[in-house]
Amino acid sequence: MTLGSEYDSSPIMRCALFAKDSEHVAAHEKQGAHFRILKDNLSLALKGIAKFQQGSSPGWHADDDNPGFLLKQSSFVFVRIPFHLVRLFPSDSELEKIWKIGSLIKTSEKSIMHISGSNAVKKVFSFINDIDFCEYAADDPSKIAESIISLASTPSFSGCCTKIKIADNDSQSPYDSDEIKSRASLLSHQKPDSCLFKMDYLMDFAENERPYEVTNLGIVCDDSEGNYVSVGFDKTFAAQQGQVSAIDLVPTRLDDPEAAGRYVLHLLNEFNKYKGSNDILKMLKRLLSLVRFLLLKDLTERFDILFKNSKLLVESEINEVNRILQYITAPTKQHCLDAFDTPIVKQLEDYRQELDLELQKAVLKEERYFPGGVSDEVYKLIEATDKKLKEESGGRLYLLKSEEGSDV
């Protein structure tokens, strides 16, 4: 029996409808009887799903203390991930690499590191453009500031820090240490506009692989009460992260009905944001996350087929390589180029030639699988997802506003 037929999406869908109805209600007013019933039903469903996954995914164990999460221990790596990412998560060797990167870029030994984005579903995408981390940093802002300056100026890896963002202020390399220290000192787990920092890197960390962009989104937390607390938790979602840490503390939970519902609404908003742009791939990635979280197995398989048999991923990888080359060869970025231990410009140019050949193969494959064109297949997928959403939500959640889909 498949996961999609064993469990339906109704508990999560009800959470989405709850979040939609209570979107403009104060937080303390969302904790009543409906919330408690939702939480009990969601926790029960997530525990069942995790147990089912445990039985069909060797090496993974349901986390009874945190419904919906599964645990794995491999070599020196400890991971805790949401139920819908288990079958897509990176291999053990890739996890070890991710673990090492996380340990190089975290700002505090007390931090809990998570991976997110496409790298959390490595088995779906043949190319990963970048690697995204989320760091729950429970430390004094002054110590975080010292780590940020150290990572920006003297990184312990082959590569460089390309951008720092503290609150809403960006800094491009090279950096002014005094300015960063001054801004970082204002970080606080209690202030929505000052609880986040972000660091972007360009790193060369594995043989026979191109340099990658690595992003670390930091959420400043307080741990004085034995748990991690921050107003910044509203800026992220447990459902899109995999914890790469041995710490048995989960900052954000899957069995929070309001948070689970907000995640569904967030993905719908992201779809609307990208559907009018030229970035079809980002739009499709948001839809894939949505159908996987809602356990819509048949739709998930159709997305897999599209990604594996079209040129979308190859084209995206070519664009990313060109962008990195443009950045690293700019006259003002010589200091960043000098920070690498290998001749990355030649490495990237050689890799781009390989990608050109891959693109030719992908074009032929796409023509065989999708004679009507990828755009036609994408639209069919949107229509099918829209139909399922309307069925599951009683018509209250949708992608297309009309049966004709005239708004897409």
SSE layout:
Blueprint lengths: L2 H4 L3 H12 L11 H24 L4 E2 L6 E6 L2 E6 L9 H14 L6 E5 L13 E8 L3 H13 L5 E8 L2 E4 L4 H8 L11 E8 L8 E9 L20 E3 L13 H19 L4 H14 L3 H12 L3 H17 L5 H4 L6 H26 L4 H20 L15
Parallel strand pairs: 5-9
Antiparallel strand pairs: 1-2, 2-3, 4-5, 4-10, 6-7, 6-8, 8-9
Helix pairs in contact: 2-3, 2-7, 5-6, 7-8, 8-9, 9-13, 10-12
How would you sum up this structure in a few lines?
The chain is of the alpha+beta class and about 400 residues long. It has 13 helices and ten strands.
Describe this structure in words.
It is a single chain. By secondary structure, the protein is α+β, with helices and mostly antiparallel strands. 46% of the residues lie in helices and 14% in strands. The strands form two sheets. A seven-stranded mixed sheet has the order 7-6-8-9-5-4-10, covered by helices on one side. Helix 2 packs across helix 7 and helix 8 runs antiparallel to helix 9. It starts with a helix and ends in a 15-residue tail after the last helix. The N terminus and C terminus are likely disordered.
Shape: globular
Number of helices: 13
**Can you give the helix content as a percent range?**
40-55%
Distance between the termini: 36 Å
**Main sheet makeup:** 7 strands, mixed
- Which residues form runs of ≥5 with pLDDT under 50? 1-7, 120-125, 404-408
**Content-based structural category:** alpha+beta
What is the alpha-carbon Rg in Å?
22 Å
Total strand segments: 10
Share of β-strand residues: 5-15%
Give the oligomeric state: single chain
Overall pLDDT metric: 87
- Write the element-wise H/E pattern from the N-terminal end onward: HHHEEEHEEHEEHEEEHHHHHHH
Strand order of the largest sheet: 7-6-8-9-5-4-10
